[in-house]
Amino acid sequence: MINEILSIIATSLTFFSIYLILSLSLNLEYGFTGLPNFGKVFFFSLGAYVVGAFIPRILQVLFNIQEPIFSANAATLRVYIAKEEVALILILFLISLVTSMFLGAFVGYIFSYPSLKLREDYLSISLLIVAEISRIFVRTEPSIIGGNNGIGGIPNPFIWINDPTTAELMYAVVTVIIAMLSYIYVEKLVNSPYGRVLKSIRDDELASKLLGKLVHRVKGEVLATASALSAVAGCLYGFFIGFVYPDDFIIIWTMYAWLIILLGGLANNKGVILGSAILVIVDRGLRFTVSSWFIYRLPFDVSYLRGMIFSLLLIIILLFRPKGILPEKPLKTTAIKIVEAYKGAGKNKNK
Amino acid sequence: MPSPKTLIVVALIIGLIIGGIIGYGISSMLTTTVTTVPVTVKEYVIGMPADLTGEGADYGIEVRDAGLLTIDEINKFMSDNGIPVKFRLEIEDSKTTVEGAVAAVQSLGGKGIKVIVGHLWSGQLNGIKSYVDSHKIFTVSVSSTSPALSIPNDYIFRMQAPDSIQGKVLAHLIWESGYKKVAVIYRNDPYGSGVFEYFNGEFSKLGGTVKPLAYTPDQPDYSSEVLRLSTMVKELGADKETAVLIIAFNYEAIKMFGKARLDPTLSGIAWFSSESLKGPGILPPASPPEVAEFLVKVKLTGTYPASLTETALMKEFNMKFKNKYGREPKAYGAYTYDALWLVALSLALTNKYDGDSVRNMYMLLANRYVGATGPTTLDKSGDRALQDYQIWQVVKTDGGYDFKIIGGWDGTTNKLTIYG
Amino acid sequence: MMIDEVLQAITSSIIIGSLYALIAYGLTLTLGSVRIYNWAYAEDVTIAAYVTAVLSSRYSLDIISCFPIAILTSAVILIIIDEIIFKPLEKRGATGIQIMLASIAAGLLIRYLIYIFASLNNIIIIKARCVSEPMINYGTFVITYLDLSIISVSITSMMFFHLLLSRTLLGKQIRAMWDNIELARLSGIKVYNIRKYIWMLVGIPAGITGTFWASYSTITPTSGWSLLLPAFAATIIGGITSIPGAILGGYLLGFGENFVMFLVHEFFGISFAYKPLISLSIMYIALLIRAGFIPIKTLKHVKTFIMIFRSGVMKYDK
Fold first, then answer.
1. Least C-beta-crowded within 10 Å: which of A274, B106, C166, C236?
2. Record: contact B213-C272, CB cut-off 8 A
3. What pTM was estimated for this model as a whole?
4. CB A30 within 8 A of CB A261
5. What ipTM was estimated for this complex?
6. Which residues does chain C have within 8 Å of residue A133's beta carbon, measured at their own beta carbons?
7. Distance (Å, whole) CA B148 – CA B162
């Protein structure tokens, strides 16, 4: 029994961290800078595709596997041999994280060009279209990750641990650490004069431009950073499932991210933590109610009721807290921190 | 005094945690042994992930309904015969996505479930594989047939033979029916591309010509694909030696049939299909009569994995299903029936609720069992080894339209026979 | 490449384009007058489709009678969502994106209700009973009565709306709201009261699309959702609040899926599995052009086309 509880906690924590990193990136883009990104899943998928495209190929070569790369036997072999190669897998995991980060940043930067000229509404739909185009392309072109079959045999960095629950817990700890690092990074990024620039772009881009802020460059940097974060989340997801499948990267991921930041509070990273926690707890919690109890008491399946409760909860939270649960707080730049240290002193914004 | 906002937040979190704990509490209460004088009946929980929402909802709901019917029958049998075991089905929605299946299976695993029988297609199976293998959760899929998942020594077993066999059967069926050129329209997913790959290999080996058309599933409209299919048939000659093979799910197929029936080339040629279309979904009342007319006109013929002699068990199952739900079962109902019976028997015999014991007992029993779908002998990958295929054709009857069994493929002799 | 195939491709483009145009139309109407991105519109269309399918197959109602019932159902649902969700949110000061999220949640709720209803009655997949016999028959090129009615009803309803918006008092009030809600309110237009009429009008394209979709194709609870992304793309490419633009976007999409896919396959051998990619890429390029991202001076040979497109659209920009 205790094993099961730990397992559920581990897997829930992993999803929590992945959602958190993804939503932090969206909060950076929309909450702070006002860039509505409806193609979040595209940048998320980049990280997973890095894992799916490179790790099996590297392992095929290193382990000298003769079976065709996309076959099930090759997948089994990869995982089987990886159980012995502790250091190798951990190194590959770290390399994947770094590669995802850079790829995400690069692609994010490229896609910042259309967003410079595009108005809000155009930007949102354009990235949405990009996400769909990418999914169709990857699922149809077999050379990337096996097309619509997807690719498996991606060993988890902790596969050498014999007890599965312990391995899941270790992986959960790693994802939580990465999530916390992302949180600290984003918080540092926005609680600074740079963060003020972001908010100024969000609130009044023209005024910001007039005041001499390099809006285009900042937008590019924001998209690059946020996309790097999304790709890291995707990389973590790829290793978690051990199987990369293009049809997995559908709009629901983007929706989750938007849900979390709108529920938790825009431009408030603590709110993002809260939102991610709520999403995971509600989703898992609802599933945890015993379905078989309902079988003869409901004429239809209880899953539909769960779905309805989920959407009702969403509507209720939005009705009572349309601005999100936690409000936006002023940025704690160094200057303000110094000022606040002197309690009672006047609010002198100039250092 | 903390602000009202903080209070709401805290209350929300506490409420959710309490809810989760209560849920867990109820679940653990319900899995303990129920003591009835004088015998203690042991209750085993079988998990069932199924696509209850999303594009696969039609098939998922059927598996669920078949599952509930079967569990009732099993429990009645056990209690009628004084066997002190009882079974409970725990159903989770896998939402026709890999992520949904992973969440469903992880949730089932978290409830302590060690045995799963579910409607899991190949992508979903791949997604849950690492979890069920590492946690030693015995998993049976009633619907996956992709050859890519034929993996020995794991915890995933499949009730149907991989489509490597069905592809070959289709090739022989079409070739021996006199058609040397085939235009194939197939679903671009593990199922469709799996059947196509093996069909293509075998048909080319027999000396035939194949023109493929892969389509991306779950789109609103297929007019352009049907147009292209028509052109392909013309390119092949559109003569007595040309045929069409469709490998699709029923809701897409109906859209395509609706367009194809108006096309003179496509309605003047023979059509063949894989097993996914055999079922009430493509006949009235679910689909319009003009589509059924078209299917009769093109003599839609297909394969269906099932025992050649329709077992008494299959007739019985179909009757019970119809009595309870008022409709015929579709493709996977009988497979769910057999899978659940095998798993229940394994659990009853081994009397231990862990993946390894059930797995070993299942492998022993399956090689000696004949279910509604015929003998369930396993191959080395844990999939069905001996697979016969019925050859069906859509015909017009007095009461409407129906599927007539016009032949069969014997899995042991690898020979095709057309009756009459 | 035979002439009948080309004609068939073009016909399919027009038929599907009309349906997309209708949905895009309804979305634009919503966006322009009440400024709401209503994602629950997808479920609205799905419900209209189910109503038609059930009425025509179980109760043998003919399609023509199904129209008003489907339209009424759509309108009522839109009004309910508005009263329960949109209006209260607006009054509490929610931003556009938050209202949009609420509409997504509402759509989800409706979809689960449809699942419950469909699973209980075994109609997860259903098609309306509507016999459509061929009217024109030339090789592969076939037009049925249903196809013709789709095209004609769509165009008629668009014309009807055009007349409504330009000639009637209600239309003038809506157009006033279109430009500037505050000014409209100040000049005495009862903005909140008109909303009910606006939803009823928006229910019309939803009802028509749902009815036709159930007759032309099969529907499942997720049918509306699969139509939504292209419809939104069409709306935004058209210029978000420009009705002719949305209609053009819808037809562009229809052509992208059928005629352009046909051409691209003929000349470049691109597989049909890439079909959604082709139509979406066209939408993306159109979006970039519409937003002025692709500088006109580098597209010399389509310069004229773009100018016509822009000036034609701007004339009707409300």
1. C166
2. yes
3. 0.88
4. yes
5. 0.86
6. 277, 280-281, 284
7. 8
